[in-house]
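Researcher: Re-running this chain for the archive, since the previous output was lost when a drive failed. Same request as before.
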Amino acid sequence: MNNSNNEIVLDTGVDVFRINYHGITFKNPDKTKFRYKLLGYQEDWVESNEAVVLYSNLSPDTYQFLLQASTNNGVWGTETASVFITVQPKFYQTIWFYLIVIILMIGVYYLIIRFRYRLLISRQAKLEVVIKNQTKQLREEKKIIEKQAAYLKEVNRTKDKFFSIIAHDLRNPFQAMIGYSDILYYKIDENIDIEELKEGIDVIRTSSKNLHDLTENLLTWANLQTGKVKVDSTKFRLQEVISKNLDLYIQAFQQKKITLNTEIDNEIKLEADKNMVDTIIRNLISNAIKFTHENGQINIKTRCNDSHCEIIITDDGIGMRTGTNNETGSGLGLILCNDMVLMNGGTLNIESTEGKGTTFIVRLPSI
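Model: Regenerated structure tokens:
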């Protein structure tokens, strides 16, 4: 505690202090009374017989302590003793501490705001990612749905075309069989010319054979669609398969007096499903014979490059006519051929001019 004449400065951290005072008198000192007040803390005088006063927990400030004494007869003296008392602030009561606290509060507030901002940005970024992923998923699902819709549309179109082709291919043989069987039925009791009878029987025979071939193709195509038939690739000579099928149709060539020209490379080897290639060639030769006029011409040749071999079958017949539903092609056989060629990694191209003929080009991988 620092002392001057009329000022007391308390040390920092002092919470409790007391003031001792005395009245100097030699006549009845026990009857001397005092009154005091601490300006800045007390507004009214406080009377006391004690010569000491205790103060505690005063706020940092400078106070003035006033003291008066009374005479024996109770009259207060006119002189007032005075002393200034300075209570120094603790460290947390200084303006610097308040400034530091304010700065820290502002800093903490800023950090909280910054943290919340980053949290919101992070949540927004995550939400954007979720929305982006969901949008992407919805787009992918939309594409899948669109593909499925297009596939179903194509399936329906193919189904309609297929039924149209089947109906068209079935109608002609049945009409021929019914027509000639009616003729034979109604003329059975008459004298039928032997040549007319042979002609009728031949038409019925040919129509029956066509129906049989159609049924075989239909069963084969159905097995392809259900996955029952798998590609069994083997290595074989193409000439063997072509010669085998030409032998099957020798009688058909002779009946229609069709000239057959062949340019077949005996050394060509393929790596494909031999049974499928056999079916492809048989159907294409049959189709060429079917749509070629009597005394017409069919050319069959083969050629190869480094990656593919081509089987080219050309006729000078009526060309590819329009079917019952404006479909191009000659029936189920061509659909079956195209599916089998694709399954063996090849292509089937058709070049046709109505009235001038058709060219089938089958490309298959070579060895």
